[in-house]
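seq as requested:
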Amino acid sequence: MEIVYVYTKKRSEFGRQCNFSDRPAELHVDILPDPTQAVNFIERNPCDTPTQCIQEMSEHEVNTERFESETRGINHMEGGWPKDVNPQEMEQTIRYRKKVEKDENYVNIIMQLGSHMEHCIKQNNAIDIYQEYFGEEAVLEETEEQPSAKTINVFRDPNEVKRTATSLSWHPDGSRKLAVAYSSLEFQRATKDMSFDSYIWDIENPNKPEMTLKPVSPLVCLEYNPKDSHILVGGCYNGQIAYWDIRKGSQPVEMSTIEHSHRDPVYKVIWLQSKTGTDTFSASTDGQVLWWDIRKLSEPTERLVLDPSKKGNLDNSLGAISLEFETTMPTKFMVGTEQGQVVSCNRKAKTPAEKIVCTYSGHHGPIYALQRNPFFPKNFLTVGDWTARIWSEDIKESSIMWTKYHMANLTDGCWSPVRPSVFFTVKMDGTLDVWDFLFKQNDPTLSLKVCDEALYSLQVQDNGRFLACGSQLGTATLLEISPGLCTLQRNEKALATAMFERETKREKILESRHREMRLKERSRSEQGKEEENKDVDAEESAEDLVARAEKEFFEMVQAEHKKKEKAEENTKVYTEKDVCEEKDTTVKAD
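struct tokens:
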């Protein structure tokens, strides 16, 4: 058998290589026209022939109908306790626990559960599934990027007559919900067909509010209870206080009586730190701060009149428009007024006069925002007129830091809950400013145009990542800020502490210098007054001397006149005697 080997190879892989080059055109064939062929054709004049080099395609659009989803929840009222046991009573729960512990099956169930629990604990100790291995590198990378913010969602007022989003409040558990209060703050601009409703929004569903709150008057402020996320308290435009339990529906559970409520709109309501979690206090432009217990809203538990003269006169009181309460300082609170002053108060003082401790004045108009720094409670932020100011409790005469004067009014502001050197402000021109005074003091770190209308409210989520802004036309915009602005930087607390202390010390030195200058001016003015008094005394003594000299002169003149008159009278008498004697002598001679 003959063995044959066959080798195959492509033609392109062997042979001479093709070399291409440029050369002039060459005529190979020239076919002349045949006139006889024209008989078979009809001439068409003019002749337009379009040609298309690409495939012809048609345009078509399809728009599907929007599907509106609705989220509903179920309230499960049945608990783990039997019906005859009240969970609020300590004795009944202890008695029931002892009864269960005596059961024979109790020990077996605990033993079975204990083995599973021990297995899970050992697994968790062996591998930490939540550990971040490259946290430091991630932080370094995040800090290098430029500060930015992007819009996540927009929640619009569903009513035809748009109202201002006056207050925002985040849900305390998870911050997946946002409560927005709507009202018209322009005097006598509320129309008859304007809605009184306020809403609770799910931040992932901007199409429809999750729940509607129906007050008897538009809500100016609204706050979640930090201890019980089902309860909200709101301040109405007519001065009443109302609270809701979302498990019981849209209507308020209870409202304060009109005769014991505020006389003006309630601009701020804050929950107090208490055991029951039912205590709150409110402030209004009628010059009062009222304390309430939502279990009994028939009348306030306490009342304070913001009279700077400390006489409790409501006619001379300062209108309150913002409030500040720090849980670490349960006896202190601060009030921002319409007159541009911050009133520091002590709730536990014995007399109403002692409750007003001191005032800080530094704004030309109402103070729309007032908040202590969450890391340094001695320093607080105020927002009013055209600037934002940072104060220290130790200096009452002036603020330690302030922003430049803007062209548009500032309407709200707040601190970042995660970074001690960052705060936010909103303005009437629809701009959001993010300030980081460790990075820049004269200009904001980030300035973002949120909308075309004025912004009136601002609230930051607890983790500092999300930010909500409320506008004049009832639009609540949800923003997500860049990680660099919501991540604590290295040595930031120490740097912020050093800056606060340095600025406080500087203001103290300047204030002492101003005090010395004022004392010198006062002493100079007093010396000038004394010299004027001396000059006046000298002038008075000279006038007395002149008057006395004039008096003596006139007395001497009168005395001379009298002497002359007496001399003239004596001469007349003597002449008459001489005439008589001459007559006698003549008679005798005769």
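Residues 138-143, 586-590 have pLDDT under 50 and may be disordered.
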